Amino acid sequence: MSATELEKVITVVTNEQLQKLKENMPPEEYLYDLAELFKVFGDSTRIRIMFALLDKEVCVNDIAEALNMTLSAVSHQLNILKRSKLVKGRREGKSVYYSLDDEHVREIISCGMEHIEE
Amino acid sequence: MSATELEKVITVVTNEQLQKLKENMPPEEYLYDLAELFKVFGDSTRIRIMFALLDKEVCVNDIAEALNMTLSAVSHQLNILKRSKLVKGRREGKSVYYSLDDEHVREIISCGMEHIEE
DNA sequence: ATAACACTTGAACAACTGTTCAACTTTCAT
DNA sequence: ATGAAAGTTGAACAGTTGTTCAAGTGTTAT
After folding, report:
1. Which residue stretches of chain A are H helix?
2. Contact between residue A117 and residue A71 where contact means Cβ atoms under 8 Å apart
3. Residue B16 CA to nucleotide D3 C1', Å?
């Protein structure tokens, strides 16, 4: 077998691997949703809000005070978290109390913590 | 106890909770790093690259072909992933083969998948 | 030495994102 | 009813980010 023939064989093998790589890829939309979820965790304000809610529900005003932020800024971020089904809110009088809406929040955060603690 | 006195007591209790909330917050820098990590996962291109590397190492060219992207765009994203210690690369001849640099990548991705599969 | 392949890198541009500001709404106390 | 407290919402602005393009670096084959 000549050198150029061998190269052809190698190319074919490589193409087969490439083919497999493409086939094994989850659907585009799935990967997009996954990235979209992590994007929500990818902001320190939202991370801080989720940490504030780890133990118990907290009203918007207290979150804003604890994080030294305006009500408006916190409300905007809570809305993003709510749309991603990560937190939920309930009204009680004048206040709206927010809490984590999913056990996965704790898991995802603790997964990330393991990586940076090294 | 009058209504206004009662309110003062309630305010004090609330302030204590606020104080605890502030004290229990991890240091600012830690939360920033955590958000920074998730930010890396929060892009569908980088997610796709990490999925491509789940099974075995792949060279930049093959990643680019599999994901239908330019070499340059893939290289830029690989660099971001490398800086976050999520992938590593090794040169073999003309090609550079990249692979996952941390078992946490799989864990974090699978954590995220659990949330969106519901 | 030259050319070709496989990347890498920096600048630039468009698109996206988070905060602020101002204008609401809701609820409660007077 | 009026006002105050607690939130929400939309527009706007500045800052960030991903891709492209052009120019570079290594490596191998001729």
Report:
1. 3-23, 28-41, 44-52, 60-66, 71-83, 103-116
2. no
3. 28
In angstroms, the separation between the Cα of residue B88 and the nearest Cα of chain A is 15
User: In this complex, is the C-beta atom of A43 within 8 Å of any C-beta atom belonging to chain B?
Assistant: yes
Residues forming a β-bridge with A87: A100
Contact flag, residue B57 CB and nucleic strand C, below 7 A: no
How far apart CA B40 and CA A42 sit, in angstroms, is 8
CA of residue B36 to C1' of nucleotide C17, angstroms: 15
Question: Rounded CA gap, A50 and A54, in Å?
Answer: 6
Residue pLDDT tens, chain B, 118 long: 544 455 555 566 667 888 999 999 999 999 999 999 999 999 999 999 999 999 999 999 999 999 999 999 999 999 999 999 999 999 999 999 999 998 999 999 999 999 898 7
Torsion of CA B100, B107, B36, A76, to 10 degrees: 140
Say which of A43, A107, A111 has its CB closest to residue B104: A111
Measured in angstroms, the CA of B71 and the nearest CA of chain A are apart by 15
Residue B26 CA to residue A32 CA, distance in Å, equals 30
Distance from CA of B83 to the nearest CA of A (A): 13
Mutate which of A10, A36, A37 to disrupt the B interface (most B C-beta within 10 Å)?
A37
Distance separating alpha carbons of residues B25 and A94, to the nearest angstrom: 26
Where does residue A77 rank: exposed (0-12), middle (13-18), buried (19+ CB within 10 A)?
buried
